[in-house]
């Protein structure tokens, strides 16, 4: 049993001291996960520390049984925070969806905003069409979990996870092409 799983179990049983030890143990991995999420986006004002803070706040009531389950939840929260951040940026009351502009030695350069909002909408469509495939995408793509780690979390076999992953990828590809 890993140290993180043990700390999660201690926290679930009411050991308040486990919370600080868990945070210290998880911080480097959460920072790596936050940077991975943010690296897929155009430059934004959101920092990895802010994502970690949100995960920590929103995970206080969650009872994760082991490391993989915690990181699947953490990844889902990070994606949700990024989508909410982008929605606020694109809100009409704040000027609408404008291009980000950065200064460079070559003058002004427009950076196209990523279509994270479209991706979020397509993921919601997938959740309505096939909730288990949606969970596989969240755990695999956003949580960085391997198929063998996802299978026991969902209570299914690895070949079933592979089929769900293939079906979800095809669904996402088709939906994002239109």
From TrEMBL:
Q: Which InterPro entries match?
A: HTH_Sigma70_ECF-like (IPR053812), RNA_pol_sigma-70-like (IPR039425), RNA_pol_sigma-70_dom (IPR014284), RNA_pol_sigma70_ECF-like (IPR011517), RNA_pol_sigma_r2 (IPR013325), RNA_pol_sigma_r3/r4-like (IPR013324), WH-like_DNA-bd_sf (IPR036388)
The organism's superkingdom is given as: Bacteria
Q: Which residues form a coiled coil?
A: none
- UniProt xrefs under SUPFAM superfamilies: Sigma2 domain of RNA polymerase sigma factors, Sigma3 and sigma4 domains of RNA polymerase sigma factors
Q: Does the keyword Transcription regulation apply?
A: yes
Keyword list (alphabetical) reads: Sigma factor, Transcription, Transcription regulation
Which parts of the sequence belong to the RNA polymerase sigma-70 ECF-like HTH domain? 1-177
The family classification in the record reads: Belongs to the sigma-70 factor family. ECF subfamily.
What name does the UniProt record give this protein? ECF-type sigma factor
What organism is listed for this UniProt entry? Roseateles paludis
- Lineage from the top down? Bacteria, Pseudomonadati, Pseudomonadota, Betaproteobacteria, Burkholderiales
